[in-house]
Amino acid sequence: MNPTEKATSRLKQEPLHYISILEPLRRGTAQLLYAGEDGVQIRLGQTVLQSAVSPQAAERLLNRLPQVPQMFVAHEDYEKELFERLCGGRDAFEPGMCNPCRTAVYTDSEPLPVSETFDIRRLGSAYAEAVAKQYHLFDDLAYIQERIAAGVFYGAFLGGELTGFIGEHSEGAMGMLEVLPKFRRMGVASALEADAVNRNLAAGHTAFCDVILGNEASFALQRTLGLSVAARPHYWLAAPERAEN
């Protein structure tokens, strides 16, 4: 059994929870840092995603890294606690630096119906600043520009006016979904995500997204569209600047 097969055999026992590791491995977009009976660790740019079978194994995997990653995705509670300790304790993390999420995954093979009310098309670089200004979860123009340049940002237009947008993160997760205020409750979000699901299906990918705990509107949208939600959370942790390994 090769390292990737070792990595996926355990994770496939809980595929909804581990999709953010499984799908990049399947797409070949991740660097596999470690795969063994005790855990899996991959890298996507400046982000390390990990799942270890025990606190001891999690600590061994973290200690293998040459430096603290800018972003760490812990799939087990004890991995979150270990990373917080490595970065100076929980108090070192300001609001927004630790986001507990549950994954929603489209497990069907049939495309979703997409409302014909909107003209959904790929966004070019001219929309980067408008997208960054409207998106509410983070302020990172450079990241928005990079994702638009990757060709994975789409907008829904009505009468030539942008009503909302959706993108795709580097790990392949659908995200950065936003509907402009004047167009809310018109079905824009459903149309955008359904279209994104269908594009994933057409490319032979599994469509998935992360939903931050407490975002009940998003959880409702996922279930309405037929996505299955993981039973337990994972954690996106942004390392404090002073953290060192």
From TrEMBL:
Any one GO molecular-function label of the UniProt entry: acyltransferase activity, transferring groups other than amino-acyl groups
Keywords, in A-Z order: Acyltransferase, Transferase
Database matches in Gene3D superfamilies: 3.40.630.30
A Pfam match: FR47
InterPro entries attached to this UniProt entry: Acyl_CoA_acyltransferase (IPR016181), GCN5-like_dom (IPR013653), GNAT_dom (IPR000182)
Presence of keyword Transferase: yes
Source species, domain of life: Bacteria
Domain N-acetyltransferase residue range list: 118-245
This enzyme's EC code(s): 2.3.1.-
Keyword Nucleus appears in the UniProt entry: no
Record's protein name: GNAT family N-acetyltransferase
